[in-house]
Amino acid sequence: MDKMDKKEEVKGKQENKEKREKGEKDKEEKLKETEKIEEEKERKIVVPGEIVAHGFQFLPGDGTRREGPDILAMKFGLLEKNDRLVKIIPLSGAYLPRVGNTVIGRITDMNFNGWFVDILSPQEAFLPVSECFARINKADLAEVFDIGDMIVAKVKSIKSRNIDLTMRDHGLHKLSDGMIVKVNSSRVPRIIGREGSMVKIIKDETNCNITIGQNGVIWIKGNDIDDELLAKEAIEFIVEKPFIEGLTDTIKEFLVKKKEEMKREEKEKLKETEEKKKEK
Description:
The protein is about 40% helix and about 30% strand. By secondary structure, the protein is of the alpha+beta class.
């Protein structure tokens, strides 16, 4: 192979590389555009009485009702369209439990049948002994859950005066250590994000385990208090600004910047400590 052939070969490889890079860049841009469209869908704020969809191909979900071919908002909140289903995520209001909701609650009292649990609902919640995760001696209920203990449970049934909980399912347990954060339950969908995308970013960037109750109670457990406080800051940021443009990217940037600041502060403290040692 002469020099001209080698040059042509090198040139061809370079062109192919540039085409691949351009193709990958185009894919990334299309993906970002798709994510932006999805974000727009989540971010639009609607008010009661506003038409949020038109046509019988759409189905009314939470916070909406149908009037002829139109679907109207019944609450002030964020519009979300998932395929054909249209629903409103309220921006305020008390937690209204639903069967199947995962909640985090505090034991407030007990009797011979089980425990009373505060889940920040207008109705009282009760965890029967029969719905606990193991066989229990009724004489020793306080040894299982005592007053003040925090638990992760699931809403099993809703009655006129109280709510029955269960812990007979995967991931339901007593909480220990860590940090508890309480937010308005209407902010929970934004903290979780589409298919768990938002909370995954917070977990990955802070190295924390995070359990989110649909009643607005959140448990954070990290390797140290700084990681937990960072996760708490990110959650509070979402609560304060739930509908800003590009919230997912903003949260990631926020966490990266905060971590860099923490590293700088740690280096400065270490430097100061070393200088003091030298002075001595």
